[in-house]
Structure formats: C-alpha cells, structure tokens
Design a protein that fits this description.
The complex is a heterotetramer, with two copies of chain A and two copies of chain B. Chain A is an alpha/beta fold. Chain A has six helices and seven strands. Chain A has a single domain, classed as TPP-binding domain (Rossmann fold, 3-Layer(aba) Sandwich), CATH 3.40.50.1220. Helices cover 36% and strands 13% of the residues of chain A. Chain B is built from 27 helices and 25 strands. In chain B, helix 6 packs across helix 11, helix 18 crosses helix 22 and helix 18 crosses helix 26. The longest helix of chain B has 35 residues. The chains are: A alpha/beta, B alpha/beta. Chains in contact: A-B, A-C, A-D, B-C, B-D, C-D. Chains B and C meet through strand 2, strand 5, helix 2, helix 4 and helix 9 of B and strand 2, strand 5, helix 2, helix 4 and helix 9 of C. The structure holds iron/sulfur cluster (8 copies). One iron/sulfur cluster binds next to helix 13 and helix 14 of chain B.
Chain lengths: 182, 796, 796, 182
C-alpha cells in the first residue's frame, strides 16, 4: 500500500494502491517496455515546459496519445511525430482490449504513462486499466504532480510551491529513458 | 361517462352487500392506434434491443472502489476482476452499482411524480384534462410508446405509475446478493430503468402542466414564454425573502398563490434553487431563480433567506444546520426529507409561525402543500424584521484575518473535489490580490468539504464568497421559463431537416452543475451550437447556469436567440422532469415526420432515432443518480450523451469502437441487405476532459447513417470547424464520415478531397470531382437503416 | 358475485363506446372489523412510533467504510462524522446505507411475491381462495394489520403489492443525494421498509400456500407435517439429479409435477439449495434438501447435479461458470437473474434439451415456469448418462499434490471472511493429518475467495471438500417441511402463558448461514431453547442447517421435539418468506388472546408486542440485504433480534441503555401514570461474538414488562442458568429484572435474595421473604404497559 | 496510512487507517492515559497465556470489560478484580456516549485496548469509536495478532507460526505499562 495521501483524499480504491517511486524507476520501466505509450491530457497546456517534456519523451520513440484538448500544444509547437488525438475514455476502452491494434496498427501496449490529465478522470481510467487490463497485463503509471493510487506507480503530491522540484523530476525522468527505434 | 369515474363505488341490484369500485375506464382502443408489439415491457421484453446496443456500445467500467461492501459476506476485494464471496465479478459488480444508481435516480422521479399525482388529485380532482392546446396532439409520446396508453386526465397516470413502480421493484430485486451474474444483463436492466425514468418524467411534467396551467401551446407558451431573472444578484434583499429548494413545486405554488391572494407579490421575494425554482417560475410570474445546485450552499450561507422551504431532491443534507447558522427558519414539506423535525401538518398556523419566528424550533414539517404558503409568507414577513440587522458576509477585517491565517497546508485542496488551490489564493489575497480567490468562486461547486479539514478553521466558503462578492452582486441573468412540450407543428417543420441532416442536430444540455471548470462552460456549449443553427434544448441546472453569462452586448443566450424548436433556438424546456419532452421531440419526429407507429412500439422507435435523429445530450455537470438514469433513458432510446470528466466516476460508459468494422453492421430495411456504415453515433455515453474537447465531440455524435449528403456536409463542416477552433487540428477520423464527394462542404471540397488522397490514400477522380475508392460505403439516398431484422420489408 | 370479478370488463347502456373495468370489489367492511387509525401507512404515518423506538433503542453505527461513493461529487471522506459534498454526515450516511440494504431486501421479497402472483394468476386464475382450513381464521394478520384488507382470493393481493411497490419507491427516492439529512429519519424509513417487507413475505407465502396446497391447517399440516431428508449425503447420485436453487418455487413445482405425471418420482432425484428447496418439499413429496446457502458452491462443485435450475435470490453470481466447470447444464427461470444467456421461452423443448445436452450452450433461459419441468427432467435424464463417468472429487494423489504445494503464504487467510488458517491445515494434511482440514469444512462459508488469491493455484475448496468427504457423505439430516401459518387454535392455547411469561418465549432462528463458527451453532441454539420449553420457530437456512446435526440417539432436533406451536416445539415454518407467520403469531396473540383490534392498527399491536410478547429473533448467520429488512420488520413490530458477529457489518444496531433510567419510562394504560421499568427487552438488535454469549442474551431479550411473577421467575431461571452454563457466572444485570421476591425462582430464592442483599445492597425482609428496597419497581399484576398516550383508558 | 495489509484484506476503511506500532508505544499511551479500559473477547480463551496477559494488565489497575464469553476465562482463573461481562455492541454503544458513567460509575474512558476479539466484530466496533467517539476523543487500539486499520494503533498480522513472537510482544507490552492506583 502507498504511503502518500491521494490527491483527492477519499480516493482510496482498496487493497491495491500504487507505489510512490522515483522518476528513474519509471524511466527504467519505460526503457524496458515492449510497447510503451504516453497519454497526455489538457493540463500539459498550463506551461510550455510540460509540452516540451512530452515531446522529449516522444522523441525517444514513444508514441503519444493526446487526450482532452492537449493536441493543441503539439500543433502549436509543430510537433506531429507519432502524436494523435484520442478521447481518453475511447482510448482506455481500446487499451482494455487485448486485440486492439494500437495507434500504429501494430498492437496494444504494455506500459502506459499518464501525464497532465485531470486528476479524477485519470484516476478512473487508471482504475479501469488496473482492474481489467490484466491479461496480458498493462502497467499504467502516472508522472503527474499527484499521488495516483490507481496507478501502479506514481509520484507523490506536489503543491504549487514545489513546482520546480516537480519539473526537475520530469527532467530526471526524461534523462532516464533510453531512446528507441520509432 | 360523467357519472362513472375510476375510484367510484356503485351498487348493482342483487349485490347490495357488495360495493364495486371502478378500476379503470378503458375507451375503445382502436380509436387512436392499434397496439404495438411491446406495451408495458417487462425486464426481458426489450432485452434483445439492449443487447444490440450493448454489443455495439460495449459497457466500459472504471471502478471508483475495488471493493464491495453490500453484504456481510464482505467487504470483498474485487481488484483485477476477482469475484466476491457471492461469486460476483468486478465487471458485473460495476454493472450492479450502475443499476443501483439508476434505481435511485428513477425512484426519485417516480417518487416525486406519484407524490405529485396524489397531491394534485386531492387538490384538483381526478379529471384534470391533459390538453396542451392546439399545437400539441400527441400529448404524451413516451406514455403512448411505452405503456400503450393515451392519457386523457391526470388520473390515467395512476396506471403508468403502477407499472413503473412494479418494474422498479423487479429491478431492485435484481440488486440483491446472489442474483444477476452478467454485466450485460445488469446493463440491460439499467437501460430498462432509464426508460422507466423517461416515462416518470413525462408523467410528472404533464401532470403539473395540466394542473397548474404551466406553459404549453396555449397563448404565451412555447417559443413565446417570458423571461425571468436568474442569479443571486437579482434577489431584492430589501424585501422579505423566501427561498424554495428542491423539485416538487406544489408548496412553492401555494406560496405564490398566497402572495397573489394577499397582494404581497411586490412586497415579498420568492426565489428558488434547483428545479423547484424553474417550476415556480412556470406557476408564479414574480418568482426568481436564485441559483442552480452549485450555489446552494453559498446562497443559504449568504443569509439572504428569511425562510427556506425545502421539498425533495438536491437539497443539501445539512440544510437545517446551514439554516440555523444564518437564522433562517426552515419548512420541510415532503416525507422523503424530514430532517428529524416535528411534523406540524394540520397544526394551527399561528402557532407554527410563532414557534419559527421565536426560534423555539429551527424548522417544522408541513406535509400538506396547501398549508405551506401562509406559514412561509407570514414567517418571512416577521423574520425579515428580526434578521434585517444580521450580517453574514465577512467584514473586511475578518476576511483579512482569515486569509492571513492560512498556513498553506494544502488540506483543503486534497479535500476539494475539484482540487482547487485555495491556499495559494489565500496567500495572494493576504498579499493584497484577491483576484485568484474571487476566480475560484465559479470553479467551486459549493460542497463545503474544504472547510471541514482546515486546521485553522478558516470558513473557506465565506472567504471565497467575500472575495467574489462584487461580482456576485452583479450575477444577474435572464432565462426563458420552462416551455414544456415541443409542439407537433414545430416537429412538422423540422422533421425533414433533422432526419436529412440539414439541421445539424438537437443538442440537449441537461442536468447538474458538477462542472470541472465553472458555469461558463455551460454557456459556451449553448452558444457554440446555437450559433451554428443546431437546436439547443435545455433543462435543469444547465438551463439556469448558462443564463448567468452575457455577451458583449449584455445579452444572455436566451435573449440573443429565439425559443422555437428550430435551427438556432435556445429553449428552456423546464426542470429535470421536463427533459422528457426532448425524448418526446425525437419520438415525434419518428411518428409525425416518418409516420412510424407509436403505441407500444419502443424498439422500432428507438431504432429509428438511433439511426436517423441527430440528437445528442450533454450533461456536462452530471452528478446525481438521477443523471445516471436520465442518461440511460436517453441511451436506450438511441440518443447519445457527452458528459463531463467527473462523470467518469459513474463507473460506466458506452463506447463504440470505430476500428471494429463488424460493430457497425446495419440492415437496409428496404431489401434486408447488410451494410457496413461509418461509426455514427460513435459512442452512446462518453466523457470529455475539457469543454474544448467536448464541443467537437458533441458535433461528432450528431452523425447518423441516414444523413443526406447535404446534411452530412453540414455536420462535417461543424465537426471539422469545431476541431480546428478548439483543438487546432483536423480530427483524425473525419474521413470516416465521408461517403461521397457531395458529403464534403462545397467551400472546402477540393482541399478536403486532396487531404483524403494525400493523408488517407483515397482514390479521387479529379475530373469528375468524385471519390473512386476509400469510403466505408458509398452514399445511397434510398438507404433505410435499421438494426431490426423484423423491419425488413422485402428480403432480397 | 360470481359474475363480476376484478379485471372484468362490462358495458353500460349509453356508454357502449366505453369499456369499464372492475378495479376491486369491496365487500361491506363492517362485516369483519372497523377500520383502525392507520390503514396503508405512508412514510410519515407511523413515524411517531418509530421515534419512540429509536429514542429508546438509539441507532448505533459502525461504518464498514469511511467514505461515500454514491455520486460523482464523491468519493467523500466522512471519517469522524464529517460531511460529504452533499452535506450528509457519517451518521446519516450510515442510516442511508441501512435503508439501501433494507430497500434491496424488501424489493427482493416484493419482486418475488409480485412475480409469483402473476404466474399463479396465469396458472390458477384470480379466484384461488385464501383458506387455510378450520384452524386458521385470521388468514393474513399482517395484511389486515397494515393494509386493512381481508384477502379472500389471491387476486386481492394485487392491491397489497400496489401499496408496497408505491411505498418502496417513495423510500428509494429518499436515498437520492440531497434528500434526507437526519439519521433518525433514515431509520424511521428503514423500519417502514421492514414493515413492508413483513407484508411482502406474508403475501408471497399465502399465495403459494393457497395455489399449491402447501401445508396449513388441513390434515397433514401444522404440527403433523412430514419429515424430509436434508444433506448432501441424502442425494442419491446413482440417479439423475436435478438441483434447484433460489427462492421462487414454481419452476421446481413444475419439475415435481412432470416427475409425478411421468412416473419418474423414484427415478430422478430432485434436490434443492436455499429457500426454493424448502418450498419444493412443500409441494413435492420426494424432494430433498441438498443444503443451505453455505454449501452451495461446494454442492455445485461436487458435480452431483445433472442439471441445475436457478430462479432468483441467493444464487451464486458465478453459478454459470461453476456449472460449466462440472458440465451441469443450467436453466435460468427468472428475469432477475439471466446471466447473459439466451432466452428460449416458448422454444421447442426438443431443441432446448438437445442444445443443453450437446453442450452447444452452457445454459438457457426459460421464463415460463410451466415449460421448465420437461426440459429440466429430460436434460437430467440424458446428462446423467453423459456425466456418469466424470469425477469431480479430487483423487488422493491430487489432494496430496495440492496440500504439499502450499507455501503457507497466508494469502488465503487474509482473503477468507472467517480468517480460516488454511495454510496450517494444509501443512498438517501434508504431514498426514487431514483432520484440521476436514474440520475447516463446516467453518467455511463456501465463498471461494481464498482460491482466487492462492499463488500456487490450489483449489482450496476442493481440497477441503476432499478432506471432509467421508463426513460429507454422511451429512444426512431430517427436517420438518415448512408448516406455514400458526393456527389460531394454537394461539388460543399459548396466548396466556406467553403473555404471562410462563412459556418463557418464542425463539425464532431465521435466515442465512454466515455463521462465525459453522452450522453446529444453529443446532445448539435450537436445542438449548427447545429443551427449556421455549417455542422455537425456524425458517430459511437456519431451519436447514440445524437439521444436519444429531443427538446421541441419532435424532435430529425435529425428530426429538414436537412441531406444535407450544412449549418445547421445534417448528419449521418454511422458507424465508414464511417467517411472516412468526410476526403473525405475535399479532394473533394480541388479537386473539388480548382482543386488540387488528385492522389498520399497526402501532397499537406493535406496542402490545413490544411490552408483552416475549419473542426474540435469532439471525445467527444473517448475511443478505433481505436479512436487514427482515430484522427491521421484526423490530418495528416490537420483536428484538440477536445476530451473529458478522452482522456488525450491517453497520447499524438498536441498543438500549440499561443505565439510563429515562429511557425506560412506560405508561400504565389503566390510569396514565408513568412507570419506570426494567430494561425489557434491553436491545432491539444486538450482535454477540460467540454462541456462548448469544444463548444468555437471547434469554435476556425475552423479558417483558408485562411478565407475571411466575413468568418472570421462569425467564430469570433460564437467564441465570444459561449464564452460569456458558459464561460460568451470574449475569451482572440479573437483579434489574427482579421486582419482587416471587419473581425469583422458588428453588434458589433464598440464595438469590442473599445475593441481592450482599452484592446489590438491597434491603430484604428475611422474615417475610420479601424485598423491602432495591428494585426499579415493584410488581403490579394489574400493570397495563404501553408507550402510547392515546391508549390511556382513564387519566388519573 | 498503514503499511500493513488488513487481516481481512478488503477491510480498507478509507483515508484514516491505524498505525502499526510497537508494544512499548501502546504501553506508554496506556501508562499516560487518564482512564484506560481493556476490552477482551472470546479469543483470549484459546490459550491460558492470553488470559494471564489480560489479568496482568488488569493488575496494573486497568479495568477489564470481558465481552463475548471471555468472562469464563477470568472466572476459571478466579480473577474478579475490576472485570465485568459486557456485550461488545452494548459496551461500544456506551463508549460513544461522552456522558456514560463507565464500569465504575466514574465516567467514560479515553484509551481503549481491544484484545482477543473476533477480527471483524472488533474492526466494526473500532470503526464506531474512530468515527463517533471524537469529542472528547477516545483512542482505541488493538493488541491482537491482526493488523486493525480501524484502530488508532495496532500490531501487524501474525501467522500461527509467529505465535511465540506475538506472545513476546504481549509480554513487552505488559512490562511497558506503568502500574496505577486502582
Ligand atoms: S454482495 Fe458479494 S461482493 Fe458484495 S460484499 Fe456481498 S459477497 Fe462480497
Ligand atoms: S466548497 Fe468549493 S473549494 Fe471547497 S471543497 Fe467544495 S468545491 Fe472545493
Ligand atoms: S486547509 Fe486551511 S490552512 Fe490549509 S491551505 Fe486550506 S485554507 Fe489554508
Ligand atoms: S463501495 Fe463505496 S462505500 Fe463500499 S467500500 Fe467502496 S468506497 Fe466504501
Ligand atoms: S452522496 Fe454525498 S457523501 Fe456520497 S459521494 Fe455524493 S456528495 Fe459525497
Ligand atoms: S471458501 Fe471457505 S475457506 Fe475459502 S475463503 Fe471462503 S470461507 Fe474461507
Ligand atoms: S494462499 Fe495457497 S499457498 Fe498460500 S497459504 Fe493459502 S493455500 Fe497455501
Ligand atoms: S436464509 Fe438467507 S441465505 Fe438462506 S436462502 Fe434465505 S436469504 Fe438465502
């Protein structure tokens, strides 16, 4: 069980709650994943920094599903490589289907990173993945400034005062991801 | 027929010892329409239809909790789709919880409707006719459709409620530990519950329209209903103020009557919160709407009410405590919400008023609506004097003190459903900038969770209200009063454009105010679609909230747009129960425009609507159990809905898979051939993260396989345009909806054809400006789409 | 009267165009009894009575969860009685959850009853008379009491269900977010729900007794009902075996009919699980009872069934998967539990049987009960041949393999609701001693949670079953079949002894098998009280489970005791719905013995029962939502209940405070004087940790203020004796129940007087053998206790 | 939040879950409590050792409410000092009332120790105390071989193999309690 308080304090789902881990742990999981996917939400638009982080992750060969209206951020930055709008509900629904072909038609993913998505909506989608995307297992993690109990792994809560620490974490994360063939 | 009525007793010679009561007078049924295949459907009756929907729009589950605590075998851990001690798996358990939510929601409407019917029969008699004037012939489309009944008087709805109540209990039975084991069957049951709920709402609204003469197609009704004031700022606190809260209008109506009879209309303010307020404006001209649910806590805490009258539903559970805090006496008028008070029904009004005014009791219960008016008004008149000097808005000093006290611990943020960063706003305010705090006011849903955890005991809600007070005082909007039924004559006008797609769709923003980002979203949604010539039909809190905002010319949307059921209209249909008229409009399109038989014929009509009527519900702030059953009711009838991100906590969505061809197989009823179509509508129930995402999604869910090319090109225009406007890009799936070149908007046709060629590899015949290869199917104007084999006219 | 029936249509001249349907034929009401004050009470009608109960027996709450997840404002953290976003506090939220449980429970019975009524009217017509033979005049005490109706035929129950359904929906409405805010009002609503549930049960059981000629006071009924076999060991697996599961008997009855008609009674075994099995034995002589709910999983997994027929309630949600595992085809017969199967009602039986036998489908739905018999029997006959060679009990090798595989990780123990230490038992078994594992068999409630978490994939349930197999094969008990109503003539005999206290009480062990310590507890409870000359009335799973155990002479309790409603009787009343007859017995005591008016007079009768009828329900394994509503129904009628420790998870108890004098103020109806009495009964709903604690507690809850001294001395004897026997000590509160020396058992009077003097400081007049000072009150044989001011005959 | 798995794995009540602490911590709380109360249940009867532990605690001046049929253990051991049968539901109902007079008529308690009570029944009663006995605050703790999330403080889960360790913990607990005037 996690030791952190969920960002929404009553968001205690049950016996299985995500671990709080360092960026490097997540980075290493991403590096070792067969088919990782980065799912970004509209909160990445609150600061150019976050779009850049997403793009940096994308540049390491990781496809991006842009949910909410986050796609604006990529369009505005003119990054169009391997990024695609998807509704988050729709995307999660696809993820739970082992036969889904993925964004590239090559199959489903095994490691999913949530980034910049409205807390409670993200939490519910993580819950779906945790409970139903089990065979084969999809690991879903969060790299947001919230503790996400429904994620397998998550950072802890950051207050606005800790914004710089959080940004540093994201930089560490990017650094720890091994680039891959796209 | 005058002499014998249901409920009558008469005797027959030879049977003097026996009294015979008339149960129902059944007029010859042939008179209006032969009975269809499914009158008064039971749980299993429409299950095939449900399974058709559910196989295309597979139930998607996102548990809010991985455990089940419904029986003492538990708690059970169901994480990872494990089974509980009773053998239920997580997926079925989620279906069960959805059914439970729909049960509570449907029961709320049914409980309300039945209660209302009792009161109305008592007050007006059984024979109040159902007659909505010259423009409404099909008075009760859902009742005809589901029950096979054509109600003539309000008493005819007794059998409707009998039927609903029996079915609700049958469905509640299925919730018991050790019953249903399949999530598909739980969902079929939820859809059944949703359908019953739509019927509830129709019955309840028709009864109150009939009894109170609320607007219909009589003069002054329909598109011509008047505007009323909306917003806290419109309540004149220099007068005694009565605030009514809830959903059941008779007590408020009685207050209005009392004010009128005693010529107090201009001396006392009657304002309301939630649906009761909407309905009060339908019965009492001078009524005002203080706010929707999201402001309830703050309106009460602002202390403006000299008496608060609650009825049922959407009342804060701590209302009594809140009233006491600002010394507003409270009158509870409904047995569903009695708050531990003493029942004073039939007691002497003098005594009751005296007890309330003296503060001997914090509130009373009066269960007879017709006893409420006098007590409420007299209490308000006296309390106004007593309360005049009380102040409930923080003083500047208090405000300063509190914001300075904040230690930025973040506890409130963790407690806040919207994660609002209150501490930082306090800090700004302490440093002299109150704007961040004032800005939170509209983002806040007024729940009060933050205050309880603040270790510094900062009354956060009051602090926020203080910061926003200047803008709050200016919260003065205008709204059309609820117009009730769409006219048959209107349907005749728009039936063809709707089905052909040239009116791009009916957008129905309904329900609660649990918005992710404040009330302004509601306004934006309405504005965007009304300006694009969709028909926008509102009910409930969204109808109220969208009235709070104005354009540059100071006009609200209700003022800037007409109220006809026609392109570009912005219609307030009424309270939550009134949204049945939106179903009714879709049904009437099938019936009046397309001539489909109505009576007991739910499946066929739903099939028609799903394939041809481009309607989309929008419940951007859906919060309650009623919203769950309402959405299920729309869905079973073939109407999709877009919901806000909080709605992911309803646990279930109905999502189609555009990538699975097999899911989009329809039948051409003309010849029985199978046709693979574009995913329209792609989802039945889907959440969007932000309003920017929702706007194109709503447009997308208006595509229907039956669209003509002209209709389709219009819908495509809006779909692409809203994407470009809010997402800065083309939607990745716009090409799925292109069947032929003429589906493409003329203005951009070439560019789009080019895109199809370049980006999607379609083959374009550039000379003919035609598409040679690419689309899922070609455009066939004679295509007669259906999901029902039995509707095939002639097998090829 | 023959010519006009409810539902009839006839025409009246001049009104040819109109058909008039007869709603109800109301016989002159004076005929039987004038109407009391509260016919068909609504939510608020009996609220005063509820508040009387609730002020004495204050709702006690123990949340199972500190959060609320009922709407999308949530989840909300209510820890420490905080409020949720809707303003509800933890205490009210718990009341709400209790109401929800009662809603589901009550709806299960109502849904079942209404469904049954439809089927019975279809099969037997509307006019099946309610006539239970010469010994039962008051055929439907609860119906008369609550509805003010005296049902003549089964169709008369339509209005009963109409009433119940309407009320259920009104109560469900109150569950909606933003309604009731007071836990007291939630509890009043739960009590209302419980009362409705008692009515449900009476209606359902009366209908089935009337239609199927189940035992009543006709010859062979009542005390003389025959015994049937109980236990897995009694099912002859050499024959084709049909197992029915659930609560709704018509499909099973049809199987019985088919077997009889086709002379297959001795060739095919018809066994059942749960209440359907009890009711099957009431309609088909050769039926057997395989087990109660607790063994359901294991009976199915043992693979003995060649076909399984489910109806509704208390069916494992994974029943289809379990059936597939042992290749038992399944027939679902009820729309509440359809398990995703295809509905084959009205399909050709040949085809259905063929599909089932071939395994093309794992099961089918047949919603017409009268179509079930043929399909079930023919399928069983064919499956028996196919399944004969299949083995589902583990082989010795498999068993050894599995127990050796266990790594003692303890995962199963953490998953087990009873915390059973399976790992250690496996270890013993691996070391050659299977006893610990075999011993777990009866402690296990058969939920299957353990297996799912075992990382070594050990089929724990099968392993346990294997270890216990020798004893399981010998599980052969005997039970009386359900007798239904207690006879008026029996009431006449025992009315006085019960009210005076000389029969120390009615003990009613009812409900499910979620025992903390296995089925033997059920046996012990019955045995202890039957041997002490209480009247023991059983229903449901406890009636089954207590039949599994035998005394030294090999006799079950049903064999060792008579079946009369009289001292020392052990009565199986029937299935869960039959426990209405226990209410009825108490009501009849008030009516027949005390002459209290019955009709529409709930409050007075409940007041009478609370003060005078020493009855106590025991739901030692209460698990379901039905148990919650059943207990609430008993409680509102003034009957307390003792429950097992799992029942603490129902969240709410009703506990009296013996230390608060003010709580125990009664009125003497004779003169209106106020009397402070001993705390009898002390609690309305209380859990005990162990059966040893429960036995004296049950005895204690039989004290009533009206006890005569002789009665009181008998009750005291048992109370003290059971304490000494099971707790090795005197109860700390026995002296509270002493009013006068003659309240003390003669045999130990002196010793007890001495104890009162020494330990409690009472003043004893040793010469007169009298108590001078000490008791709460003296004994007044003319004391006429009531809680209702209106019953005061003459104010002093 | 606790780090231990509840003995009943799904017994996750919400954001406030008891801490796992050492016997000495509980001992010191008991020692410093104004009015502590030991509540024992029927599971103490499974081994004479546990009755003796209860009695030793009792001898330090702490009153005992014997619930279930645990009173047998005291009667059989002839310990009658300050021990009284109480039904656990009844007792908890009294505890939540600030005006309750206590076993000795001197008032309610401020620190309650649960010992030897059936897991799930104890858990529910601890939940009642946690949620409703807040003003004045009653701290309820468990010294059972189970992790009790509804207790303020609790030991962790012991398997039967760890029985000796558990007994040693109890001995340490007894040792750490300061005796008081009875
Ligand atoms: S209903 Fe089923 S899953 Fe829920 S607590 Fe009971 S046994 Fe467990
Ligand atoms: S009242 Fe407003 S700020 Fe406070 S928790 Fe609720 S939504 Fe957040
Ligand atoms: S909880 Fe109170 S002190 Fe803490 S940040 Fe919020 S307002 Fe400030
Ligand atoms: S389902 Fe809701 S109430 Fe039940 S345990 Fe989960 S969060 Fe708590
Ligand atoms: S019903 Fe009330 S307490 Fe429950 S989740 Fe909704 S707002 Fe929170
Ligand atoms: S099946 Fe028996 S042993 Fe296994 S978890 Fe359930 S009760 Fe425990
Ligand atoms: S979970 Fe399996 S391996 Fe672990 S103790 Fe239980 S039976 Fe043994
Ligand atoms: S007693 Fe309980 S478990 Fe048994 S059949 Fe009846 S409701 Fe089901």
């Amino acid at each position: 069980m996690g030791m952190e308080i969920p960002f929404d304090v009553a968001n205690i789902p049950g016996p299985e709650m995500g671990e709080v881990v360092s960026p490097e742990v997540i980075g290493s999981y991403i590096s070792n994943a067969e088919r990782p996917l980065l799912v970004v939400g509209s909160e990445i638009l609150r600061d150019k920094f976050f779009i850049e982080i997403a793009i940096e992750i994308g540049k390491k060969g990781i496809p991006i599903a842009a949910t909410g209206h986050s796609i604006r951020g990529f369009v505005d930055t003119e990054y169009a490589d391997n990024v695609m709008y998807y509704n988050l509900h729709d995307l999660t629904n696809c993820l739970r289907d082992p036969n889904w072909k993925g964004l590239d038609g090559k199959g489903n993913y095994d490691f999913v990173i949530f980034f910049g998505i409205l807390y409670y909506y993200a939490s519910q989608m993580l819950s779906c993945i945790k409970n139903f995307a089990t065979d084969p297992l999809i690991r879903a993690v969060s790299i947001d400034r919230y503790y996400h109990p429904n994620a397998r792994m998550s950072f802890s809560n950051f207050t606005p005062r800790m914004e710089e620490e959080y940004k540093a974490m994201l930089n560490r994360l990017v650094k720890s991801i091994r680039g891959r063939q796209k | 027929m005058d002499k014998i009525k249901k409920g009558d007793l008469f005797s027959i010679s030879g049977l003097e010892n026996v009294r015979i009561s008339i149960g129902g007078i059944v007029e010859e049924e042939k008179e209006w329409e032969p009975m269809g295949p499914h009158p008064m459907p039971r749980i299993a009756t429409l299950r095939d239809w449900d399974f058709k929907l559910l196989n295309r729009y597979k139930p998607f589950y996102a548990p809010v909790c991985d455990m089940c605590c419904l029986c003492t075998y538990g708690k059970c851990d169901l994480t990872g789709n494990k089974k509980g001690a009773c053998g239920i798996k997580m997926d079925a358990q989620q279906g069960r919880i959805v059914l439970l939510a729909c049960l509570v929601g449907c029961s709320a409407h049914c409980g309300h409707g039945r209660h209302l019917l009792h009161d109305m029969i008592k007050k007006f008699g059984r024979d109040v006719p159902i007659d909505f004037g010259p423009e409404v012939d099909i008075e009760a489309p859902l009742t005809r459709l589901i029950c096979g009944i054509k109600p003539r008087t309000i008493a005819d709805f007794e059998q409707v409620f009998d039927y609903i109540e029996e079915q609700i209990v049958q469905l509640a039975d299925a919730l018991h530990t050790g019953q249903e084991g399949s999530y598909m069957d739980f969902e079929s049951k939820s859809l059944h519950m949703g359908m019953l709920d739509s019927l509830n709402k129709e019955a309840a609204d028709i009864i109150q329209i009939a009894c109170y003469g609320m607007p219909s197609s009589l003069p002054g009704g329909g598109p011509d209903v008047p505007l009323v004031d909306v917003g806290i700022g419109t309540i004149d606190t220099d007068k005694p103020v009565i605030i009514v809260i809830g959903h059941n209008v008779p007590p408020a109506a009685d207050i209005g009557d009392y004010l009128t009879e005693n010529e107090l209309e201009d001396k006392v303010e009657l304002g309301g919160i939630c649906c009761t307020s909407i309905d009060t404006t339908r019965v009492y001209k001078k009524a005002k709407i203080a706010s929707a649910l999201g402001r309830q806590l703050r309106v009460i805490r602002a202390g403006i009410a000299d008496v608060i009258v609650i009825d049922e539903q959407c009342i804060r559970a701590d209302v009594l405590e809140l009233c006491q805090r600002v010394r507003s006496p409270m009158i509870a008028t409904n047995d569903k919400a009695m708050h531990g008070l003493v029942d004073r029904t039939d007691d002497d009004p003098d005594k009751i008023v005296d007890d309330l005014v003296s503060g001997r009791v914090p509130g009373v219960i009066i269960l007879e609506p017709d006893q409420v008016g006098e007590v409420a008004v007299r209490t308000a008149l006296q309390m106004d004097k007593k309360r005049r000097l009380l102040k409930f808005i923080l003083s500047d000093d208090e405000f300063k003190h509190y914001v300075n006290d904040c230690i930025l611990c973040g506890g409130c943020t963790l407690a806040c459903p919207n994660g609002l960063r209150i501490g930082e706003a306090n800090q700004s305010a302490a440093a002299g900038n109150i704007k961040p705090l004032a800005d939170l006011f509209d983002l806040c849903v007024g729940c009060g969770r933050c205050e309880q955890v603040c270790k510094k005991h900062i009354p956060i809600v009051d602090v926020m209200t203080k910061a926003a007070y200047p803008q709050l005082k200016e919260e003065k909007g205008r709204m059309r009063i609820g117009r009730g039924p769409i006219w048959d004559s209107e349907i005749r006008e728009v039936g063809a454009p709707l089905v052909l797609g040239t009116i791009p769709g009916i957008i129905a923003p309904i329900g609660c105010g649990n918005y992710p980002n404040g009330t302004k979203d509601a306004w934006l949604i309405v504005k965007e679609f009304a300006e694009r010539n969709y028909i926008v039909t509102l009910t409930g809190c969204m109808a109220i909230d969208c009235a709070l905002w104005k354009d540059e010319e100071g006009k609200t949307l209700y003022e800037a747009h007409h109220g006809r059921f026609d392109a570009g209209g912005v219609l307030n249909i009424g309270s939550c129960v009134s949204n049945a008229h939106i179903h009714d409009a879709a049904i009437k399109v099938a019936s009046i425009f397309a001539g489909r038989p109505l009576r007991g014929n739910y499946e066929e009509i739903a099939d028609y609507i799903l394939s041809r009527v481009g309607a989309c519900g929008v419940a951007w702030g859906a919060m309650s159990q009623k919203a769950a059953s309402i959405a299920s009711g729309f869905n079973r009838l073939g109407v999709p809905a877009v919901v806000g991100p909080h709605s992911a906590k309803y646990r279930r969505a109905f999502l189609g898979r555009a990538d699975l061809k097999e899911d989009w197989k329809l039948i051409d009823a003309s010849d029985g051939s199978e046709v693979y179509v574009e995913p329209g509508p792609q989802h039945l129930l889907v959440a969007c993260e932000t309003v920017e995402e929702a706007l194109p999604m709503i447009a997308k869910l208006c595509f229907r396989p039956s669209d003509t090319d002209r209709g389709r090109s219009g819908k495509l225009t809006h779909y692409i345009d809203l994407n470009l406007k809010y997402l800065n890009t083309y939607p990745p799936d716009w090409h799925l909806f292109v069947r032929t070149a003429s589906d493409l908007p003329l203005a951009t046709r070439n560019a789009l054809l080019k895109k199809l060629e370049d980006e999607h590899g379609w083959e374009i015949d550039w000379k003919m400006k035609k598409i040679r290869e690419g689309p899922i199917r070609g455009y066939d104007p004679s295509f007669n789409p259906t999901n029902l084999e039995r509707l095939i006219r002639e097998k090829k």
